Amino acid sequence: MPFPQGFLWGAATSSYQIEGAVDEGGRGESIWDRFVRVPGAIERGETGAVACDHFHRYRDDVDLMGELGLRAYRFSIAWPRVLPKGAGRRNEAGLDFYRRLVDRLLERDIVPVPTLYHWDLPQALQDRHGGWTGRETAERFGEYGALVFEALGDRVDRWITLNEPWVSAFHGYHTGAHAPGTRNLEAALRASHHLLLGHGRAVDAFRASGRGGEIGITLDLQVSDPATDTEADVEAARRSDGHTNRWFLDPVLRGSYPADMVAVHEDAGRAFDHVRPGDLATIAKPIDFLGMNYYFRRDVAAADNELGFTDVPPRAGEPTTEMGWPIRPDGLRDQLLRLKREYPPLPIYVTENGTSDTAEPGPDGRIEDAGRIDYLRDHFAAAEEAIRGGVDLRGYFVWSLMDNFEWALGYRPRFGLVHVDFATQERRPKASAAWYARVIGGNAIVD
Ligand code: IFM
């Protein structure tokens, strides 16, 4: 069964994970440039300083996208490349890089889908305002958005404000696994609110710019199932869903935080004085589409910790990705159907889905990543089921175009359709890339 006509098949990346050139072209320091230098923060002490060297190789990379038949490319703009200090003086050379990238995409009929924020906050805003724990960062984000819409709005008509604010807030400020490495749940709650407020400010700036086009947000939405049918585990799964999904879906699409989760935090004495009158109306400004990233569905059990739940390991014998994530494509279908059932109608894009697979070139040079093909085939089929169930799914972006810097795990996980030899920067499309090109060409899943 084919996908709807015009279905936007693409691939995704992000600035810090691929660009490199962190000290070039007038780019300022980001919180990731600083965090990667913390001993033990990143496996093997790796950094994104060179990454895929995409900043210098973007022309060839776009040509490669053309050869793969991609219809769309989702990338992110590095805020410190455009505003080295996060605000104030703009860096024309940084804007020019993105202008050239977009022009090259358009020349090859590839729809550019930039994300304004994929985690590389200007370090100056961390120093000055405590990063996202400070309300000022949300205000600066709105201004940054206005600047980018003005500079690129003549060439781009589909925008994403934030990528996975749950990860930015809770890995950045609660678990400390990501930059800036803070470990404090209250700080993470503040950060989540200011990320959402920044999203709302950027949507306002986009509408005020008068540019045509569409704007949305990308949330990472995973399904949480109770590990057992005990009341405690059922409640744990509800909390997990509240913490990871509804904490962002509800403010953006309903204009309120989920009452059950607010009660959990208030009962624990966590303050909400950072939420000011009018904020939720800003956060809930109408958007044109929702981006959903999907990687797994989790089993959750009750636990005696700050949030009252914990993930349990994948079931015995169950297939997992090399990240250790259980492979459960039905979660993609179920989450899409749930969005349709419980939230106002909105076009949806799967803005990320994919798997790590460390297949290396064989003697003939081919990279047989059969595991990735199986993974994608099953997830595309789940998306197709959701479409048949009435979900208005408009496109699908595979994570990732090419192997890249996987944050705290460095370069070990390889998520790319294209293999990157990080010693030589040679790109080599894997078997999955050729398979994906056939899917795109026929707008249908192939064997
Ligand atoms: O690499 C990340 C990406 O930056 C955000 N979504 C999940 C991917 C795989 O972990």
Short description:
With 447 residues, the chain is an alpha/beta fold. The protein has helices spanning 15-18, 31-35, 54-68, 79-82, 92-107, 123-129, 135-152, 165-173, 185-209, 231-254, 259-267, 279-283, 330-342, 370-388, 431-442; strands at 8-12, 72-76, 111-117, 158-163, 214-220, 223-226, 289-293, 297-302, 309-312, 348-353, 393-399, 418-421, 426-429. The protein has a single domain, classed as Glycosidases (TIM Barrel, Alpha-Beta Barrel).
Indicate how many domains the architecture comprises. 1
Widest β-sheet, arrangement of strands? 1-2-3-4-5-7-10-11
Q: How would a crystallographer describe the biggest sheet?
A: 8 strands, parallel, barrel
What distance separates the N and C termini? 13 Å
Low-confidence segments: none
What proportion strand? 15-25%
What structural category arises from helix and sheet content?
A: alpha/beta
Based on CA atoms alone, the radius of gyration comes out at 21 Å
What's the CATH topology label?
TIM Barrel
Element order: H for helix, E for strand: EHHHEHHEHHEHHEEHHHEEEHEHEEEH
Principal-axis shape:
globular
Specify the number of helices.
15
CATH-level-2 architecture: Alpha-Beta Barrel
